[in-house]
Design a protein that fits this description.
single chain; 121 residues; alpha/beta; two-stranded parallel sheet; 5 helices; 5 strands; 21% strand
């Protein structure tokens, strides 16, 4: 991801994740390098919170985010904790890491053992 994330960018990602989940029939492990990402616009945040993301959220088996800023990690972790408190089954394994190798190693743990519900790491 490079630059600000717009609503149409987020909807495109949602559509790709939905198509991949449908094609695999077994969920998706997601890795994102956000070192060059700007801000996530209000429209993009709404796309994630809206019904557009239903079905995709359940298809995510685990996520690894590479290079997130301290602020992004804090905000994301707080949001995941709030969701987990309300609906524990909606959160999948998530890690904030510095390198692609770390991301792949984290996701491989869950891919090999079948990712279940877990909290943020």
């Amino acid at each position: 991801m490079r630059g600000d994330v717009l609503g149409e960018d987020m909807r495109s990602q949602i559509n790709v994740l939905r198509a991949l989940a449908k094609r695999t029939g077994d969920g998706v492990f997601w890795m994102a390098d956000v070192t060059a990402m700007g801000t996530v616009t209000t429209e993009a945040r709404r796309a994630v919170a809206a019904n557009e993301f239903l079905g995709v959220r359940e298809s995510l088996r685990g996520s690894a985010i590479i290079g997130a800023s301290f602020t992004a990690r804090v905000v994301s972790t707080l949001m995941m904790r709030a969701v987990r408190a309300l609906e524990p089954t909606r959160i999948r394994p998530v890690a904030f890491v510095e390198t692609e190798a770390e991301a792949r190693a984290f996701l491989e743990q869950f891919r090999m053992h079948g990712a279940g519900v877990a909290g943020a790491l």
